[in-house]
Design a protein that fits this description.
The complex is a heterotrimer of chains A (291), B (379) and C (239). Chain A has one domain: ABC transporter involved in vitamin B12 uptake, BtuC (Orthogonal Bundle), CATH 1.10.3470. In chain A, 73% of the residues lie in helices and 3% in strands. Chain A contains eleven helices and two strands, in the order H-H-H-H-E-E-H-H-H-H-H-H-H. In chain A, helix 1 packs antiparallel against helix 8 and helix 2 runs parallel beside helix 4. The termini of chain A are far apart. Chain B is α/β, with parallel strands linked by helices and 379 residues long. Chain B is built from 13 helices and 15 strands. Chain B has a seven-stranded mixed beta sheet, with helices on both faces. In chain B, strands 2-3-1-4-5-6 form a six-stranded mixed beta sheet, sandwiched between helices. Chain B has a two-stranded antiparallel sheet with strand order 12-13. The longest helix of chain B has 20 residues. By secondary structure, chain C is an alpha/beta fold. Chain C has ten helices and ten strands. In chain C, helix 3 packs parallel to helix 6. The longest helix of chain C is centred in the C-terminal third of the chain and has 16 residues. The chains are: A mainly alpha (291), B alpha/beta (379), C alpha/beta (239). Chains A and B meet through helix 1, strand 2 and helix 10 of A and strand 8, helix 7 and helix 8 of B.
């Protein structure tokens, strides 16, 4: 039983890593722009396709393809901020509708470009298997967890210690005050948006080789990532990390004790229970964007 | 020279046009999520059409006809299916419709066939309920899920593969399959059961639970795509468990997604072993490979048989009429590529069901039925 | 009359289609403390926001030491020499006091200069040095106001605009805030302030304007206005 729980925890850590990457991007964007970008899951999916394109068609180098995919998606995110979200600034309802519309646009665009069938992305270097007691994990599994942890670390240091990172935090705490001290808030907006979409692309590029690349691959990570955000505390960056991992581990470990039919509900039951104890989530930030 | 050639073409065209064509309705998936299996279905129909027409067509009531297929793309969408049936019955006025892949779409098409009294001959959908609705105009050439499960259960009952675990689609096919096996084998022999939703690709928690439950075998009730992912994840996690698969996992196409090493030893039920040393199968497989350059697929064989036996029934009926054709279909006995086909009172045929197993070299052997048992390369 | 630091002429402003400022003209001289008083809704806060380009529609002219700044973005206005402390609390509550100060110098690329200026405001506001690593949101209301003013000094502005600096503070802190305003003048800054606490504000100021319904009604030296019966009416009802 203990080893089963341990094994499921590792599985959950892996699944949770992807939720964390999605949640981090969403929560950063929400912080500075007060937009819940529901299209974040499809951006993960587009990131996976772009990474597949660079890897299979152009470069043949997986690390390079990951970086290129993150860069391309950052540019896409910046374009979206400019063209869609900035003109709708201050109108939460229209921003939500726009982000839902983007889901349809990108899913159909990807189907038009790559077809409806799933793509495979075989990365020989990370397909090797690492024994861990009785269990075995592919290098890719461990890579997903390691890269996510590294990204979390780098992102935290950036937000905590760099001038621009501090400005991002400042802007999400008080936009008016940020303008008053001379922070270029519009630049903060588009850089944060680009950063957020790059994180989503990273998630897609990392799970692509593990499974398959297909048009709906971002749906579950988006929903679970959002649950992680709510659980961790809306608007809180550490909350998004803790929340994403909790959701991943909870749904994985639950299958040891409960029929798998409940797997998806477990994530949300855990979320509701935690919100009952801490109504503002674990890292309770006051709920914003409702004024 | 050019003029002479043109005249020649004209003559050929006139010659062909001189013979009347009989339109036969086809419903299939040319696009959408089932486009890939839809291609196999059309390959089977086209092969049969070509064969019938190149032999000069067929005669009904003393009149010669060539086959002309009226194809509609139903895109795995029930509404599209029902409207295609409507069009075929009222605009194209065909005497019979064949095909379909998706059980849900077939369920929407069948009542329309009944309303207009034209037979609908299914060649791929496996939902058992389709032939339980008392629809006298519905016929199914292929074995349904109950028949497939029955055969597999009979085979597994003779093996020491318990507890038997499952990873299954969280839908009718998956849940139906698990419940069917439970009924046939008894709850006691069933181990961990894990369901997953369409779009899920991470099976790691199922794999861990199968390991923890010490299952001797795991049955994968799913399609090609998730099937290949599940097998990869099971083998990569170091599980040596016996694998049991479905129809979709016993073809060369499937082998392309994985590799022989991961597949070795896996068994699956199969409606059509393309390499079996059965004369009918061998002839069909060779002709199929010649025309399409790949291994013959069961869906193609079933559809090929469907069209051939429908034409045979038309000849027996003696006139171009849906009701007369229905009666002829109900009575017909036909030896096809997939085996002996005779519809029961519900319109369900009972072709043989095979269990095949992957060998280490990426070939397959036949394990069941006992009478057709054959070694690697024959499955 | 010394050269004006700020010269506003004929300034009009609208917000949401509603005219809020009507042809306002005022000036602030070097090292001068100027207060704008008036009823709620007279347009005092809008006046400061208009100067800092936070109101979308404006007309007229705004000059900083003779240079037209009407069209500049807020961060450029700040760089040009006007700092603005809004009425609502504007510290970053989840940043430390130090981080808040560093953000005040966001536009400075010279790290050594920033460090020197932070050191200087720490000397002016010793409490901020003590609380350097505390989150700004945990400071008392008065300390937060001090932090806001201190943060506004990081760009070494020529003019500091304060919107209701004493509002919501305990009486002891109100005194401290007006002392700070005086200290700003000693540091060579000009101050343009909007206040409801008319008596104390006038006592701390050199000159004052009285606003009503978006227009300047009166301008005089602050001590003169304290005794003016028209001004008395403004604050008699309040305090």
């Amino acid at each position: 039983m203990l080893s089963a729980v341990l094994e499921q925890t590792l599985n959950g850590l892996m699944a949770g890593s992807v939720y964390v990457l999605v949640a981090l991007g969403m929560v950063l964007i929400y912080g500075v722009m007060h937009v819940l970008n529901f299209a974040h899951g499809v951006l993960l999916m587009v990131g996976a396709y772009v990474c597949h394109f660079f890897f299979v068609r152009l470069t043949g180098s997986y690390p390079l393809s990951i970086l290129l995919s993150a860069a391309v998606l950052a540019l896409l995110g910046i374009a979206l901020e400019r063209a869609v979200f900035r003109p709708l600034q201050g109108n939460l309802r229209n921003q939500v509708i726009a982000s839902l519309g983007l889901i349809l646009v990108f899913e159909n665009l990807v189907i038009a470009l790559w077809g409806p069938n799933a793509l495979q992305m075989k990365v020989a270097a990370t397909a090797a298997l690492v024994p861990l007691g009785e269990m075995r994990f592919s290098v890719q599994h461990l890579l997903v967890i390691a890269v996510t942890l590294a990204v979390v670390l780098v992102l935290f240091s950036f937000l905590k210690f760099s001038k621009f990172g501090t400005a991002i935090r400042a802007t999400s705490q008080d936009r008016m005050a940020a303008m008053v001290v001379g922070i270029p808030v519009e630049r903060v907006d588009w850089i944060t948006f680009g950063l957020g979409t790059a994180l989503a692309a990273l998630g897609g590029a990392l799970i692509g080789p593990l499974f398959i690349v297909f048009p709906q691959m971002g749906d579950a990570p988006m929903v679970k990532g959002l649950a992680g955000i709510l659980l961790g505390g809306m608007g809180s960056v550490p909350g998004a990390v803790i929340g994403g991992f909790i959701i991943g581990i909870a749904e994985s470990v639950s299958t040891v004790f409960l029929p798998t039919d409940y797997r998806d509900s477990v994530a949300f039951i855990v979320m509701v229970l935690i919100l009952l104890v801490w109504p503002r989530g674990i890292f309770g930030v006051s709920v914003r964007g409702e004024d | 020279m050019a003029r002479f050639f043109g005249v020649f073409l004209l003559l050929v065209a006139c010659g062909a046009a001189a013979q009347e064509k009989l339109a036969i309705g086809i419903v299939t998936s040319l696009s959408g999520p089932m486009a890939a299996p839809g291609k196999f279905q059309m390959n089977g129909f086209r092969l049969a059409e070509e064969e019938i027409n190149s032999a000069g067509g067929f005669s009904v009531g003393g009149k010669k006809y060539l086959v002309e297929l009226k194809v509609y793309d139903t895109r795995a969408n029930p509404a599209e299916g029902a409207s295609a049936m409507q069009r075929l019955a009222t605009v194209d006025k065909v005497p019979v419709v064949l095909g379909e892949l998706h059980s849900g779409v077939a369920a929407a098409e069948a009542p329309v066939a009944q309303d207009y009294s034209i037979p609908l001959v299914l060649t791929i959908p496996t939902g058992p309920n389709l032939t339980e609705q008392g629809n006298r105009f519905l016929f199914r050439v292929n074995a349904n899920n109950d028949q497939l499960t029955q055969a597999l259960a009979e085979f597994i009952a003779g093996q020491a593969w318990t507890p038997l675990a499952f990873i299954a689609w969280n839908n009718d096919a998956g849940r139906g399959g698990v419940n069917g096996m439970k009924k046939l084998l008894g709850e006691a022999r069933i181990g961990y059961v894990g369901y997953f939703n369409v779009g899920e690709v991470d099976f790691s928690s199922h794999v861990s639970n199968i390991r923890a439950g010490n299952a001797r075998a795991v049955m994968l009730l799913m399609d090609e795509e998730p099937g290949s992912l599940a097998i990869k994840q099971i083998r990569d996690a170091g599980l040596k468990t016996q694998l049991v698969g479905t129809l979709a996992m016993g073809s060369d196409r499937f082998l392309k997604r994985l590799d022989a090493q991961r597949l070795e030893g896996m068994v699956q039920y199969n409606a059509f072993p393309p390499n079996a040393k059965v004369p009918g199968i061998r002839v069909f497989s060779e002709r199929y490979r010649k025309k399409y350059g790949e291994e013959a697929h069961g869906f193609a064989a079933q559809s090929y048989d469907g069209l051939k036996l429908t034409v045979a029934a038309l000849q027996k009926a003696g006139k171009i009429d849906g009701r007369a054709l229905r009666d002829a279909l109900a009575a017909i006995e036909y030896d096809g590529v997939i085996g002996h086909i005779k519809f029961d009172a519900k319109g369900q045929a009972h072709p043989p069901v095979y269990v095949t197993q992957w060998c280490s070299d990426g070939k397959r052997r036949i394990l069941y039925p006992e009478t057709l048992k054959a070694d690697c390369g024959a499955g | 009359m010394s050269a004006a630091v700020l010269e506003v002429s004929d300034l009009g402003a609208s917000y949401g289609g509603r005219r809020i400022l009507e042809s306002v003209s005022l000036r602030v001289g070097a090292s001068e403390i100027v207060t704008v008083i008036g009823h709620n809704g007279a347009g005092k806060s809008t006046l400061l926001k208009s100067v800092f380009n936070l109101i979308p529609w404006r007309s007229g002219a705004i000059r900083l030491q003779g240079r037209d700044i009407l069209g500049l973005a807020p961060d450029r206005i700040l760089a040009a020499g006007i700092a603005y402390v809004p009425q609502s609390r504007s510290v970053f509550p989840k940043l430390t006091v130090d981080e808040n100060l560093r953000m005040g110098g966001y536009l400075l690329s010279d790290k050594a200069l920033l460090a020197a200026r932070i050191e200087k405001v720490r000397q002016l506001f010793p409490v901020l040095a003590e609380r350097a690593h505390q989150l700004a949101g945990t400071l008392s209301g008065g300390e937060q106001r001090m932090l806001e003013i201190a943060r506004a000094l990081l760009m070494d502005p020529k003019l500091v605009m304060l919107d209701e600096p004493s509002i919501g503070l305990a009486p002891r802190m109100v005194e401290a805030v007006f002392q700070t305003v005086g200290m700003l003048r000693n540091q060579g800054k000009a101050v343009l302030m909007v206040e409801q606490n008319v008596r104390k504000a006038l006592a701390a100021s050199d000159r004052a304007y009285v606003m009503e319904l978006g227009e300047i009604r009166l301008e005089d030296a602050a001590p003169a206005l304290i005794g003016d019966p028209r001004v008395a009416r403004l604050y008699m009802g309040r305090r």
